[in-house]
Design a protein that fits this description.
Elements lengths: L1 E5 L5 H17 L4 E7 L6 E7 L9 E6 L12 E9 L11 E6 L7 H5 L3 E6 L4 E5 L5 H28 L1 H6 L9 E4 L4 E3 L1
Parallel strand pairs: 4-9
Antiparallel strand pairs: 1-3, 1-5, 2-3, 4-5, 6-7, 7-8, 9-10
Length: 196
């Protein structure tokens, strides 16, 4: 699954929240792998982070609220900061490209002796960008290859979309889509503790 965290037009506090949310999710789901990011001006802050995970994080799609006094502007009255979480759909159609290098490896783990004897795991590397995605969850090399290629295509499409947004200033318009009410999750304080 490909997930994007975004501060949109939000101020530096929202960019800080993007970094804190990614760190929190990384502690919760250990397989998160950053594909691309746009760093903010402050240390450990981000306008956006695009990452891969094998977990289904679709329940996180929507708005995340961070309740905290500003860590950037002391005395600032506002204490609610928002992050948008979007799931980037994986494509069904796969574009063949000479720009990919495909590597095979032993998957290991569940699946019986087959995974230890046969190279069922697939790593697809997009040569121009160096982006790599893997698939090991299927027992057949063919299915893992199809899955990895779909993921790669979705990642590249998301990157193209981000690049296009910059050119047309779409990023500013996208931020208005962050819904401020009814957050999916709420975090509190500088420690970024999840509110149950």
């Amino acid at each position: 699954m490909i997930v994007q965290l975004s501060a949109g037009q939000g101020p530096e506090e929202c960019q800080t929240a993007v970094g804190k949310l990614y760190d929190s999710l990384k502690n919760e789901y250990h397989d998160l792998e950053i594909v691309s990011f746009k760093a903010g001006r402050i240390k450990d802050s981000y306008y956006s982070i695009l990452f891969l995970t094998e977990h289904d994080l679709s329940e996180l799609e929507g708005t995340i609220l961070w309740i905290c006094k500003s860590t950037v502007r002391p005395g600032h009255k506002r204490k609610n900061w928002y992050v948008d979480v979007s799931i980037i759909p994986e494509k069904e159609e796969i574009e063949d490209s000479a720009d990919y290098r495909i590597e095979k490896f032993h998957s290991g783990g569940k699946g019986g002796q087959n995974v230890n004897k046969v190279e069922t795991g697939i790593r697809v590397i997009h040569i121009p960008t160096g982006i790599a995605v893997i698939s090991t969850e299927e027992r057949s090399q063919y299915l893992n290859k199809q899955k990895a290629l779909k993921r790669m295509q979705a990642v590249l499409d998301a990157m193209k979309q981000q690049a296009g947004a910059k050119q047309t200033n779409q990023a500013w318009r996208e931020h208005t889509k962050i819904v401020r009410g009814n957050p999916v999750r709420v975090y509190e304080g500088v420690e970024f503790k999840r509110k149950e």
